[in-house]
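can u do me a favor
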């Protein structure tokens, strides 16, 4: 059974501490080895979810402890897999000539630009200076930068917890992938070639 509490004592040098349960009860001993994600260091006053057990002396002990964001990190790993697979598919289609090379350029360049935009926004948030609007970040994702947005969200830990933002973000991903899938059809590719030819012709006449 999962129990929630707060880390009220923690000795980082020795790797152990104590949890005060949210419900009434004795403090619970916890060792660093009990945490699901050992790459994160626990901190005092941090919320934690754990399984309550007892040691050989019958004293309460925490096991299978999860810090806030750890479950999200697993979902984030799946998101990264989606982005990597999509970019691999795009690359394969472009190399084999199934789609124009410009699609590959759009997605990779867009992803790099979007990643930089996220990094700039996080840095600005930490400094308290001018930030990139959420609508701009969503627009970048919509036009093909969403793989880079996923990498930024998970690697920079930015915009990865705000549910409203992530909901809109995944809508932009679905819209972009939907349009891309349509462009792979004969009608879609014909439409793309028609408008791209018109655009090139217009630019050449300027």
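np, heres the sequence
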């Amino acid at each position: 059974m999962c129990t929630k509490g707060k880390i009220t004592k923690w000795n980082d040098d020795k790797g152990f501490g104590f949890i005060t349960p949210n419900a009434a009860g004795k403090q619970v001993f916890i060792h660093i080895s009990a945490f699901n994600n050992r790459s994160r260091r626990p901190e005092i006053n941090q919320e934690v979810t754990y399984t309550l057990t007892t040691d050989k002396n019958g004293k309460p002990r925490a096991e299978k402890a999860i810090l806030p964001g750890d479950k999200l990190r697993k979902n984030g790993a799946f998101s990264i897999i989606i982005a990597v697979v999509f970019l691999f598919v795009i690359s394969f289609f472009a190399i084999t000539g199934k789609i124009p090379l410009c699609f590959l350029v759009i997605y990779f360049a867009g992803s790099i630009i979007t990643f930089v935009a996220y990094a700039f926004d996080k840095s600005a948030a930490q400094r308290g200076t001018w930030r990139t609007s959420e609508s701009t970040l969503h627009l970048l994702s919509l036009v093909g930068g969403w793989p880079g947005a996923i990498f930024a969200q998970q690697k920079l830990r930015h915009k990865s917890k705000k549910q409203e933002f992530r909901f809109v973000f995944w809508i932009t991903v679905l819209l972009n992938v939907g349009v891309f899938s349509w462009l792979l059809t004969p009608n879609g590719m014909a439409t793309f070639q028609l408008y791209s030819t018109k655009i090139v012709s217009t630019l050449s006449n300027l």
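The helical segments are 70-95, 101-127, 134-155, 163-183, 186-204. hope that helps!!
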